[in-house]
Please model this.
Amino acid sequence: MTFHSVVPAPRTILSGIRKLPPATVRVVKADGAVTDRCYWEADFRRTAAIGKDEWAAAVREKLDLAVQRRMVADVPVGVLLSGGLDSSLIVALLAEQGQRGLTTFSIGFESGGGESGDEFAYSDLIAKQFGTEHHQIRIGRDRFLPAVDRTVAAMSEPMVSHDCIAFYLLSEDVAKQVTVVQSGQGADEILAGYSWYPPLAGVSREQAVDAYAQEFFDRPHSDLARQLSPAWHLDRDHAREFVAESFGRPGAETAVDAALRIDSQVMLVDDPVKRVDNMTMAWGLEGRVPFLDHELVELAAACPPELKLASDGKGVLKDAARGLVPDEVIDRTKGYFPVPGIRHLEGEMLAKVRDALHAPEARHRGLFRPEYVEALLADPNTPRTTLGANQLWQLALLEMWLQDKKL
Model:
């Protein structure tokens, strides 16, 4: 309810079930003794005194190599082209490497709640400039609602991000054309592309945890007392304690470094990477993420925060893309995977949410205070989390997942 529905390793949402932390080797001996060894971690300290242009050139070089590595396959490799900087740069680098006949895919939904459901203008621009075989995938209401249950069933753990359904439907169609794709996932977490990083600039390390929590947590701990049923509410703020422990580890010099470290090593693993992996593999589609190449991640971690925060975020990547990606894409306002049907709940979708929260299983479980649930159902689209997500959808998704798993 606080840390974007992420339950960090080794814990899971299921009692008695544990998951292996990232970059970890576990050895289980015959007598039952268990030892874990972390074999890799990026170092968020300055290791090279080079200038802005040299950093941009180094990022471009490492990304070029990462993209090239992920084209090695026995089958054609496509690209999920959102129209944003990250996926557009992947396409541009592939074209520069001489790739021909590249297949790209974009998805769009019906508009809703005053929000556009696609970014085809930008993806079309990139596809035309680099001569890709481009596929626009348009999703109407006839496909959207039936896909909700199948998307929830594909989740290994609850995933509240509204774009899960988008990735599920996108993967369904893409898998008919190719079996391997590259995507721009991970760039925001390693190169400071999100809105919560700039407010941390200049914040002292002593104040960093509070500043991060204020910008990133879905809701303050104090709000949970009036949202969760008493049996489920904890007196301690475990989410904040977890962040404080991470921020307190050596190796991250600034508040921005500390935030990027926890986001790239915890949040990224158990939210964006996990949900896209679950949705693509539901259709046998392999998603490859060049921005998470270990050499590029190491370079990004060592890059000064001010270069990453420049130009409204991912400044060093924008510099690396100049002359290769059109300026209209580089300088556009940051976009997100638009799924109006989830961000703005109405009609059949709202009825589905209401049914999930009124189901006998939900009433028996009693996770949430009834008055909080009814208040959200009466005003389904106004209450938002800190980062603008729909609060009602978070509750509904959790219940849908628990009911799907018969828990």
User: Anything to note?
Assistant: Residues 222 and 237 are 9 Å apart (CA to CA). The longest strand covers residues 103-109.
